[in-house]
Specification:
Distance between the termini: 33 Å
Helix content: 40-55%
Strand order of the largest sheet: 1-2-3-4-5-7-9-12
Largest sheet: 8 strands, parallel, barrel
Bound molecules: 5-hydroxymethyl-3,4-dihydroxypiperidine
CATH architecture: Alpha-Beta Barrel
Number of strands: 14
CATH superfamily: Glycosidases
Radius of gyration: 22 Å
Oligomer: single chain
CATH topology: TIM Barrel
Structural class: alpha/beta
Shape: globular
Strand content: 5-15%
Length: 468
């Protein structure tokens, strides 16, 4: 038996565990200038020279804007319970405030209905980084006004589709927006200023909290949460310097977001580290941020190894690396989940992203992406292990449904379990997608064993309707 066989997988997932696949609007939709959509900061960023590895853009991407019906059928064919996608804010509200674009809203309305018709739960992210460029012109996330525009946007979207979606996520990976977008500047909008970045992170968190309050005031029924990119931090050596730096990095990536959400305060050591670059916080902000979550989304890819002098080379550990040069480190996911449970009053957790980019070998119409399958298998087992130790994980989503625009890496890095030929837009299931489908079939068979009453009810219904 190989370790890729479905029969060697853990069986302890409860019948209502949610299995899914994930994407985001800018990475797959294309249709960037169609039907009233306004430009986003990523549309503008891609126009700059030397910021995207292959000088590409999101004008067409996977052309999901035109191919969504076939894509929904493909998602259904995988046998997943849920599809996580994001709304392009400038598609539905081109200026980021005021007038709504009916054609944009209609697009997502139809997508939601098609998913439901195929028995797939829509899980919606409101901000997966593509801020309307018009808002950037007035300061973007660094401007406190954007917080209020986001709340208006969240309410507008929820009023249109919130009755049919299972989950609404405010932000995807606020650390990325703040740090990569405003400190290192390698992502849109390309700003390099630490004080701006810390202010942005505060505004993202504040807008998350205020949006949750507003959505609850509107009596939205969808589960409400936020998605954080988290990784365990390991010191490269036992030296005091490496350990101190590791604690700080842990503060910047994890505690900076988790502490205000769950404990009502930013971590003191990080505030001290930021000094004059710490954000301006108004009275009541932290209370607003600390809204109760229905779920916490966790995106996990690898661990981080930290050395004070920056001398750690990822090849040193000898672990397999993905095409992003990220270590394959599944035990880090168990470690992270246990730590979350130990340190915070966590709500149900959904692994909202997990997956890997590898160079795919397309031979005779088949992609034998054994490394990706092995990655997924090992990480699902890591989730199972955390659950056995009491961590309340309720769902798992593969990143990504299909190859797509990998931000500053352009189209060169392929995370999909479905291959996309960008010339023809043809989708081809990779072996990992076939493996996931078989794994989910086995999970469902297990569910039927676990729920014999429902099974016989379903069988009765089928007999009654003649539906086979
Ligand atoms: O592609 C991204 C996604 O948009 C956010 N999380 C990480 C993925 C891989 O880099």
């Amino acid at each position: 038996m190989t370790d890729l066989q479905v029969s060697s997988m853990p069986q302890n997932f409860p019948p209502d565990f949610v299995w899914g696949v994930a994407t985001s609007a800018f990475q797959i939709e294309g249709g960037a200038q169609l039907d009233g959509k306004g430009p986003s900061i990523w549309d503008r960023f891609c126009q700059q020279p030397h910021v995207i590895a292959d000088a590409s853009h999101g004008l067409v991407a996977c052309d999901h804007y035109h191919r969504w019906q076939d894509d929904v059928k493909m998602i259904h064919g995988l046998g997943v319970d849920a599809y996580r996608f994001s709304i392009s804010w400038p598609r539905v509200q081109p200026l980021g405030q005021g007038a709504w674009n009916t054609q944009g809203l209609d697009f997502y309305d139809r997508l939601v209905d098609a998913l439901l018709a195929h028995n797939v739960s829509p899980s919606v992210t409101l901000n997966h980084w593509d801020l309307p460029d018009a808002l950037q012109q007035t300061g973007g996330w660094a401007n406190r006004e954007t917080v209020h525009h986001f709340v208006e946007y969240a309410q507008g979207v929820a009023r249109r589709i919130g009755d049919r979606v299972s989950a609404l996520t405010t932000h995807n990976e606020p650390w990325v927006v703040a740090h990569l977008g405003h400190e290192s500047g390698i992502f849109a909008p390309g700003i390099k200023n630490r004080a701006t970045a810390s202010q942005v992170s505060h505004h993202l968190l504040l807008s998350h909290g205020l949006a949750l309050q507003a959505l609850r005031a509107d009596r939205q029924q969808a589960q409400l949460g936020i998605v954080l990119n988290l990784a365990p931090m390991h010191p490269a050596t036992d030296s005091a310097e490496d350990q101190a730096k590791t604690k700080l990095e842990d503060g910047l990536l994890l505690r900076w977001y988790l502490d205000p959400i769950f404990n009502g305060a930013y971590p003191e050591d990080v505030l001290e580290h930021l000094g004059r670059d710490a954000p301006q916080i108004q009275s009541g902000d932290l209370a607003a941020i600390g809204q109760t979550l229905d779920f916490l989304g966790v995106n996990y890819y690898s661990r981080s190894v930290v050395s004070a002098k920056g001398t750690w080379d990822v090849k040193q550990s000898g672990l397999p690396l993905t095409d992003m040069s990220w270590e394959v480190y599944p035990q880090g996911l168990t470690e992270l989940l246990l730590r979350l449970k130990k340190d915070y009053p966590v709500p149900p957790i959904v692994i909202t992203e997990n997956g890997a980019a590898f160079v795919d070998d397309f031979q005779n119409g088949r992609i034998k992406d054994t490394q990706r399958t092995s990655y997924l298998r090992q990480h699902i087992a890591a989730v199972s292990s955390a659950m056995k130790q009491g961590v309340p994980v309720v769902g798992y989503m593969v990143w990504s449904l299909m190859d797509n625009f990998e931000w500053a890496s352009g189209y060169a890095k392929r995370f999909g379990i479905v291959h996309v030929d960008y010339e023809t837009q043809q989708r081809t299931l990779k072996d990992s997608a076939i493996w996931y489908r078989e794994f989910l079939t086995a999970q469902k068979a297990q569910r039927n064993l676990d729920r014999p009453a429902e099974k016989s009810l379903a069988a009765e219904k089928q007999t009654a309707t003649g539906d086979r």
